[in-house]
Write a structure and sequence with these properties.
heterodimer, A: 646 residues, Immunoglobulin-like, 3 domains, twelve-stranded mixed β-sheet, 28 strands, 29% helix, elongated, B: 703 residues, Aminopeptidase, three-stranded antiparallel β-sheet, 24 helices, 56% helix, globular, PIG-T (chain A), transmembrane (chain A)
């Protein structure tokens, strides 16, 4: 009895925990594929782990990564997003206002922002510790974000939040497998099984764009959230160009046929099964509304061939388990459940029958940023917004005259680029506008040398009929100390991307399925009302760079000067003028040394004259003769040495 | 210096006085023997200048990241077919429509769009730079004024295409420029467009690009430089105002990528019949600026070692056949050989033929740098601190031969691909190698550390002679005074410094007035330009006349240089001090100029230093031997003539082209070119050389 009782208790506890675990922690894996208009393919992996709050569930987890749990608790994180990106998202061709592009198109390099649940005076310290921890966790130099010159606290332009948000970006961080591996380690199945198993490293890094993202949302410490617990969302977005065997196929109309692709042709592997720990594991193929309408236009005058034909002109290699239509537009989502294909590897492929040209749904304005001016002294930054075709779709032509659109710009500028905020100018359609008429709110925090970067938050109110808007601001280039230059200083200095937000437009798509959209995390993410975001280019500012061999030169010159100085100082201190004069007089009195005497005799012999008496007042010709003799002797020795031994 | 001299003189009379410091003794020794030393220094300077081809070092690729030629070229015959297709289309267009202005631009746009590139058309209008008072140096050398009442057709149209590097972040770009004359397109222009296009289409496919590629098809009907400079200006300072551009023209103000650019400019010419396919490199930008030597190195390396092209840089052909130069070369060859016999490790000898070639190249290098006018459209890039060179290829056979043309295109394409790939490897901007250098062959250079020696040797005598001239009269007088009246040296020093040290004030005033006048002279062309219906000769005459009048007026206001009559007891001293002040000002001027443009200062020093050193009043020829007086007077007269810039130019022009075509207006035309290109040589000539010459004239005519 004494033995059975603890065993029973343990068994009960284990059973209870087991129930709780499977009621609480969840993991799901999803992959979304989408053909892009410029003959590329977007693949978006979405992994999500959730855990219930600690107070109900305890500290021990089965699925949820311990590192993230500890991170959240140690730094009391309410929200955190970390992204590693290489390449530029092409807003024009790959879309700008759908959920994927507005939340997964990230600036090149590393971007990190976090909201903390700590008192305001501890936020900076917490941020510093967090950057160091993440740096270790992801093998990246995120720790460079710890200095106050590297991060900022946006007030309202980046996110509507309290003062405990911190934002930092490292545009020059090189992203590679060393960052991907720790990211994959957070998944319960790693990349050993499930969707992550197709992540072939060369395939990812060969692409035109890849961005791995990690987002943590936790409601452990606050109470205002609806779903308590910690939510870890890991996404990997890549844009690849499928190998195309039919490159030269060109139709009479001059349009190129889209390349056929399959998962195997892109990643080199097929999906061979699910991660057994995943609650749901599915692959989606999305056809955008513009593409669908183009496909419908193609007509129905063709017979279905071997594959599964869902639309005229497109052929899928595997029949979808479910077809979901968007509520507002005509976008279509094909769902393939990996579980149902467990018996054989899943290789979803698309074949195109006709050349189809379509364009993505863009953000209302295409944002670009560039530098103006030349030289090492000053310049100006220009942010240009060009209206896209999307604006007409959203607004409609009849309302264009009296509607207005809000654009919020958030820009962080390092301190050595000294922005003059009073020089902000706004040009609308080629006219210089009166600034208060266009700018709704502007909030700036000027940079402080070596302490904090300059932050500019602007809310513009533009008429919907605006075709182009340009905001310019002038700056002076600062000088850095020699020890402040980064390695490869001649490369120039990066200004991180500006964030352009369109708060009036929501990037959300509602896919209505029979049952899946309720459980699918990716689709519920799509339904969230996120404002449309786009990032501008990173800028490269050339600053005056010293010649870095200069310290060496300076040291050499300084040492020479010091040697000369100390030599002459020593000379002055050592010499006694009175003593020397006395000695000279003694010499003049006739007591010449032996060697000069002999030499002078020798020289007088050589000259064939009798030696003059030593009272001669000027011994200088003799002395110089002696000197010349010595020099000649030395030179002769040197030449001989060089000739025979050199 | 007066105290030092007094010290130096005193010991002979008073042996108990302590000896001065050695450095002071060396100084006084040099100054007292200044004539000998200045002769030695000048001779050594000239010798060092002639030694430069011998001292030239082989170039080497300094930046490790460049790695030229480490990858196999991907440019294939398929790409040459692409090039031929475009060439054929362009020539067809020319045949069908006669004039092919905007059509070519549209055709290029169509081809570029096929390659998934972003295409822009850039319209510009060129207006030649006039002489403006305020904006010398401050503005770039051409100004563009978009006038609203002009139609699109009157503009030049550049076509710009951009390939975004797949994984790059768009911060840097490599620019490829191919100029073509849109009003009269030639086979060679079409070929250069075709070659650029084939490379462009290759680059749109490759996966190793880290920098964006910009291809600028520059419409060079108003000159190659103008179109490129117009594009660069609009690229760096785009205008957002509507009034600045006409509505129906699309302007590339959306230059989404800005940052660092490295550039090559490609140009194919249907050149003379060469024995080998030849590649010419042009590098000199405005005011003697050069692109980084590494850029030339990689082009040279790839052209010679990978593509087997014959690489040329510009030469002065008139120097090539000079007999005296050959003799100098033979002497150097002999010395080199002798040195080699003494020690086999001393390998500085080069053959006489190499020496002559090197000198011709070096002379042209110095000449183009000194002129300060860019030798091609790469100069426009250098104004924005972008390294650029122009490559010009001339084939061995006629370009109409299809087979040969393909081979030629293949080699050219592979060369350009290699260069672009190499530059693409670069992480930082070009900074490793030399910026200050002279080329003596495509693979040989003389760096600043060596060529500066010649200039320094030439310029060292100036302060020395100035000091000796200044101290000379002082010394004589003070020593006389010490011997006669005042045995106390300290008192002598005091008196001499009290009454003599302000001697130079009058001379300084004269020098200042003359320099002020020179400043006025440099501004007179602005007035002359306001004249209606002007011919170069008339302009020149007006310029000379106004200069003369202003000189007279200035003398009337400030007093003539000969009006100072206090020192009539020693007329020698007066001109000597004037000469001393003039020489020191000239040495300062030359030193400043050597920082701005070394080559100008070098050539200027060759003229100016002998003129300054030898100048002597004709009336005070001294009591030396007759022969010496005669030679001094002759050399003074000769130097006075060739030291005057217009005379020197006319003489050189007459020597090169015959004296029949030489007119006074030539100098005006030349000066106009200089200020149109904002060349600092103009400033040197008018602000440094001219006043120095005028002061020399004053001294020559000293009563």
């Amino acid at each position: 009895m004494g033995i059975i009782q603890p065993v029973l208790i343990v068994a009960l506890v284990v059973l209870g925990c087991f129930n709780l675990c499977y009621g609480g922690e969840e993991f799901s894996e999803e992959l979304l594929l989408r053909p892009l208009p410029d003959r590329k393919v977007l693949a978006h992996f979405h992994f999500e782990s959730t855990t219930p709050p600690t107070k109900d569930y305890g500290h021990h987890h089965h699925l949820f990564p311990k590192a993230i749990y500890q991170l959240v608790h140690k730094f009391r994180i309410r929200e955190l997003e970390l992204s590693f990106t290489q390449g530029r998202w092409n807003y024009e061709r790959w879309g700008g206002s759908d959920p994927i592009s507005s939340s997964n198109a990230k600036p090149p390099g590393v971007e990190l922002w976090a909201i903390f649940d700590v008192p305001l005076d501890q936020v900076d310290a917490t941020w510093k510790n967090l950057t160091h921890t993440l740096s270790g966790l992801f093998c990246a130099s995120i720790n460079f974000l710890d200095s106050t010159t590297a991060y900022s606290s946006p007030a309202w332009a980046f996110q509507q939040s309290s003062g405990s948000i911190r934002y930092g970006a490292l545009p020059r961080e090189a992203v590679c497998t060393e960052n991907l591996t720790p990211w994959l380690k957070l998944l319960p199945c790693r990349d050993k099984s499930g969707l992550a198993s197709i992540l072939d490293r060369p395939a990812i890094y060969r692409g035109f764009y890849h961005s791995q993202r990690l987002r943590i949302t936790s409601n452990e410490f606050g109470s205002e959230g609806i779903e308590p617990g910690i939510d870890l969302e890991q996404t990997l977005t890549i844009v690849v160009q499928p190998d195309d065997q039919r490159t030269s196929t060109s139709y009479s109309s001059g349009k190129m046929l889209q390349p056929d692709w399959s998962i195997r042709s892109i990643f080199g592997r097929k999906i061979s099964g699910t991660c057994v720990l995943a609650r749901s594991s599915s692959v989606f193929l999305e056809l955008e509304s513009t593409l669908v309408s183009e496909l419908n236009k193609v007509g129905v005058d063709n017979a279905a061939s071997d594959g599964e034909q869902v639309y005229p002109g497109v052929e899928l290699s595997v029949a979808p388990d479910q077809v979901i239509k968007e509520r507002k537009s005509s976008s279509v989502l094909f769902e393939f459940s990996v579980k149902k294909h467990d018996y054989k590897p899943l290789d979803i492929g698309v074949k195109w029958k006709y050349p189809i040209v379509w364009s993505c749904v863009q953000a209302p304005f295409q944002a670009n940023r560039f530098l103006m001016g030349s030289g090492n002294e000053r310049g100006s930054i220009a942010i240009s917004l060009r209206a896209t075709n999307h604006q007409r779709i959203i607004v409609g032509d009849e309302f264009r005259d009296n509607c207005e659109m809000r654009v919020v710009i958030f820009q962080v500028v390092p301190w050595y680029v000294k922005i003059y905020f009073h020089t902000v100018q706004v040009f609308l359609d080629g006219r210089l506008e009166h600034t208060p008429a266009v700018i709704e709110i502007i909030q700036v925090s000027p940079s402080e040398d070596r302490v904090s970067p300059g932050v500019m938050e602007i809310a513009l109110r533009l008429p919907c009929s605006t075709v182009s808007a340009v905001i310019t601001v002038n700056f002076d280039k600062g000088f850095l100390h020699i020890d402040e230059y980064p390695p490869d200083a001649n490369q120039g200095y990066d200004i991180p991307s500006a964030v352009v937000r369109f708060p009036d437009i929501q990037a959300s798509t509602y896919y209505l399925g029979e049952n899946s959209s309720q459980n699918s995390p990716i689709l519920s993410k799509f339904q969230e009302n996120n404002p449309v975001l786009s990032y501008t280019e990173v800028l490269l500012v050339p600053l005056a760079t010293p010649d870095f061999s200069m310290p060496y030169n300076v040291i050499t010159i300084t040492c020479t000067v010091f040697a000369l100085y100390f030599g002459s100082l020593l000379n002055v201190l050592r010499r006694r003028v009175g003593e020397e004069e006395r000695l000279l007089k003694q010499k003049a009195a006739g007591k010449t040394a032996l060697l000069p005497l002999i030499l002078s005799k020798l020289s007088s012999k050589l000259r064939g004259r009798s030696r003059e008496p030593s009272e001669s007042p000027s011994p200088s010709p003799l002395l110089s003769n002696k000197l010349i003799m010595k020099v000649i002797l030395l030179a002769g020795l040197a030449v001989a040495w060089h000739f025979y031994f050199g | 210096m007066a105290t030092a001299d007094a010290n130096a003189v005193v010991p002979s009379s008073q042996p108990s006085n302590p000896k001065p410091r050695p450095i002071v003794r060396i100084g006084t020794f040099l100054i007292s023997h200044s004539a000998l030393f200045s002769l030695i220094c000048c001779a050594a300077g000239i010798l060092a200048l002639f030694l430069l081809p011998v001292l030239a070092k082989n170039t080497y690729v300094s930046e490790n990241a460049l790695m030229p030629g480490s990858a196999n070229p991907m440019f294939s015959n398929h790409d040459t077919m692409e090039a031929n297709r475009l060439v054929k289309d362009i020539m067809d267009l020319k045949l069908s429509s006669g004039i092919a202005g905007i059509e070519i631009s549209n055709l290029l746009g169509k081809y570029m769009t096929e390659r998934d590139a972003d295409v822009y058309h850039h319209n510009f209008h060129v207006q030649k730079n006039q002489f403006h008072l305020g904006n010398f140096f401050s503005d770039s050398s051409y100004s563009w004024h978009m006038k609203e009442n002009r139609s699109c057709a009157q503009y030049g149209i550049n076509t710009v295409a951009i390939i975004r590097a797949p994984r790059g972040d768009g911060k840097e770009a490599i620019v490829l420029v191919s100029p073509y004359n849109s009003t009269n397109i030639r086979q060679s222009d079409a070929l250069s467009l075709g070659l650029s296009y084939s490379i462009f289409s290759l680059l749109s496919r490759v996966n190793w690009l880290a920098k964006d590629i910009i291809w600028l098809a520059a419409d060079s009907q108003y000159g190659e430089y103008a179109s490129v400079a117009a594009w660069l200006k609009d690229y760096h300072n785009p205008s957002f105002l509507d009034s600045d551009k006409s509505d129906d023209c699309t302007c590339p103000e959306s230059n989404a990528l800005l940052g660092r650019k490295d550039s090559q400019i490609l140009q194919v010419v249907d050149g003379k019949e060469e024995t080998k396919d030849t590649l010419s490199i042009y590098a000199e930008a405005s005011n003697g600026q050069m692109p980084n030597l590494d850029l030339i190195n990689i082009v040279n390396y790839l052209a010679v070692h990978r593509q087997g092209l014959h690489v040329k840089v510009a030469k002065l052909y008139s120097v090539l056949n000079a007999a005296w130069l050959r003799t100098v070369g033979q002497i150097f060859e002999f010395i080199g050989k002798t040195a080699k016999i003494v020690n086999p490790q001393w390998g500085f000898g080069i053959s006489a033929a190499d020496y002559v070639e090197g000198t011709a190249t070096l002379a042209s290098s110095i000449y183009y740098q000194a002129l300060g006018i860019p030798t091609g459209s790469h100069g426009a890039f250098r104004d924005y601190q972008i390294d650029a060179i122009t490559l010009e290829m001339s084939p061995r056979f006629s370009l109409y031969n299809e087979v040969r043309r393909s081979d030629f295109l293949l080699r050219g394409g592979r060369l350009l691909e290699g260069v672009i790939r190499s530059v693409n490897n670069l992480l930082e901007k070009f900074h490793q190698s030399f910026f200050l250098y002279l080329l003596s062959a495509p693979s040989k250079f003389v760096s600043v550390g060596i060529y500066m020696i010649a200039f320094m040797l030439l310029i060292i005598p100036l302060p020395m002679v100035a000091a000796s001239l200044y101290s000379g009269p002082n010394k004589r007088e003070s020593s006389a005074r010490t011997n006669n009246e005042n045995p106390d040296p300290a008192a002598a020093i005091v008196t001499s410094s009290g009454s003599k040290s302000w001697k130079w004030l009058h001379a300084a005033k004269v020098v200042f007035v003359v320099h002020l006048w020179a400043g006025l002279v440099s501004l007179i062309p602005y007035l002359v330009n306001q004249l209606p219906e002007r011919t170069p000769t008339a302009c020149m005459l007006v310029w000379v006349l106004l200069s003369f009048v202003s000189l007279i007026i200035l003398y009337w206001i400030a007093g003539s240089p000969y009006s100072y009559k206090i020192s009539h007891q020693s007329p020698n001293m007066e001109w000597a001090i004037l000469k001393a002040v003039m020489i020191s000002v000239a040495s300062i001027g030359l030193g400043l100029m050597s920082i701005i443009n070394y080559a100008t200062a070098q050539i200027g020093a060759i003229f100016m230093v002998p003129m300054c050193l030898l100048v002597h009043p004709l009336k005070h020829a001294g009591n030396a031997g007759k022969l010496r007086v005669l030679s001094l007077t002759t050399s003074n007269m000769v130097l006075a003539v060739i030291g005057f810039p217009p005379a020197a130019l006319l003489l050189v022009k007459g020597w090169l082209e015959g004296f029949d075509g030489v007119s006074l207006g030539d100098f005006w035309i030349w000066a106009e070119t200089l200020w149109t290109w904002n060349s600092a040589t103009y400033l040197y000539l008018v602000l440094i050389h001219l006043p120095c010459w005028v002061l020399c004239m004053h001294i020559l005519l000293h009563p």
